[in-house]
Write a structure and sequence with these properties.
By secondary structure, the protein is of the alpha/beta class. Helices cover 37% and strands 19% of the residues. It binds S-adenosylmethionine (SAM). The site of S-adenosylmethionine has 24 residues, from strand 7, helix 9 and strand 8.
């Protein structure tokens, strides 16, 4: 369904980036250095400097190899800068410049020719250790409508996702955006890729999409096809986060939840956006958000949290009752927490007092 060959390099890198230096070095040794470097270069893009990466006594040159400034770093530091949480300055950094002869412009010309070097070096180092920014800012930068343009969701995402931000998460978002245009959409996938610095970000859309990114993959498929979603979950999951921002038709939202929630990891979250359609009949909703609507399904989980108080206090309950440990509602968006809900209920004698 998806070409996951690259993940065999990326996934261990993302895991090891926050480990101690010995473990990171041994992970790098177990991978092909060229493949690791390819991931680093994909992440940082083009720059106007030469980047020399050292690993295991070897140095290789990248980016603009004829540039007037050379930035040298250990490969492990580059990986830690990109995917790690270490705020220290670069322990292995060296910046050198070829020493051009004075030309007819003399000393003044020599100094003038070096003016842009600091900026080029800084741009590269900023790309190698990106500053963490608020999700609202990222939404604006990448053009996601999750902040503004009818929705004010990022404040809620920030609150619920903060604990996962630096983890090597797997995210699946239903709905890439841009509808039938293969070259448009992907704003939120790019935002998640930047927010989750160690995240693998998967997007699903019914339309063909050309969205790419160093840690983004896209899949074409229909969120109303439960069998397809189950196969997707087996192949790419378990997910730490699933976000439903697809068709918003009530029937589709319910089908997707039932098919994908089993593929959410314990401690993970399933998010449903645009719940206003639960109240709109033309989308399969009802003004009272009755049980057959998306909100109807989500509301039933609230009672499910306390099911041990009405049935057998030590009974098993249904799969959803046992595996939903929390739910938060905000305007038009809900966060369902996956976790064991197995506390026993109050004893029978108390119920009849
Ligand atoms: C609101 S846009 C997603 C926006 C994107 N998540 C963002 O925040 O930038 C909804 C997308 O869902 C897709 N979609 C509609 N019906 C779908 C279905 N049945 N299965 C999967 N995707 C669907 C549309 O093609 C469209 O691109």
């Amino acid at each position: 369904m998806v070409d996951t060959a690259r993940w065999t390099v990326l996934a261990p890198l993302l895991q090891a980036a926050t480990a101690g230096r010995d473990l990171l070095d041994s992970t790098l040794r177990g991978l092909t250095p060229g493949a690791v470097i390819a991931e680093v270069l994909r992440e940082i893009g083009e720059h106007d400097v030469r980047l020399d990466l050292r690993f295991d006594g070897h140095t290789t040159s990248h980016l603009r190899t004829d540039a007037g400034v050379v930035v040298t770093l250990d490969l492990a530091d580059a990986v830690r800068g990109l995917y790690g949480t270490d705020a220290r300055p670069w322990p292995s950094l060296a910046v050198t410049t070829p020493n051009p002869d004075l030309d007819e412009h003399g000393m003044a010309g020599w100094f003038h020719s070096r003016k842009g070097l600091a900026q080029s070096v800084q741009e590269l180092l900023s790309a190698l250790k990106p500053v963490r920014r608020d999700l609202g800012e990222l939404a604006v930068e990448f053009g996601s409508d999750k902040w503004g343009d009818l929705h004010w969701y990022t404040q809620h995402y920030e609150r619920h996702f903060a604990r996962l931000r630096t983890e090597p998460v797997k995210v699946l978002e239903i709905g890439i955006g841009g509808y039938d245009d293969p070259d448009s959409g992907g704003a939120s996938l790019r935002m998640w890729q930047r927010y989750f610095q160690r995240g693998l970000i998967h997007g699903l859309d019914i339309a063909r999409k050309n969205v790419t990114g160093p840690r983004i993959t896209t899949v074409r498929g229909d969120q109303s096809d439960a069998g397809f979603l189950d196969r997707l979950g087996r192949e790419l999951g378990p997910f730490d986060v699933v976000i439903d921002d697809g068709s918003h038709l009530n029937e589709h939202v319910r089908t997707s939840f039932h098919a994908l929630f089993p593929h959410v990891r314990a401690g993970g979250l399933y998010v449903v956006e645009d719940l206003q359609t639960s109240y709109w009949p033309s989308w399969g909703g009802h003004p009272d958000a009755t049980p057959a609507t998306s909100m109807g399904l989500l509301k039933s989980f609230v009672d499910g949290l306390n099911r041990a108080e009405v049935g057998d206090p030590r009974g098993e309950g249904t799969y959803l009752e046992r595996n939903i440990s929390g739910i938060s509602f905000h305007h038009n968006i809900a966060f369902v927490e996956k976790g064991l809900n197995a506390e026993e209920g109050g004893p029978a004698f108390l119920r009849t007092l």
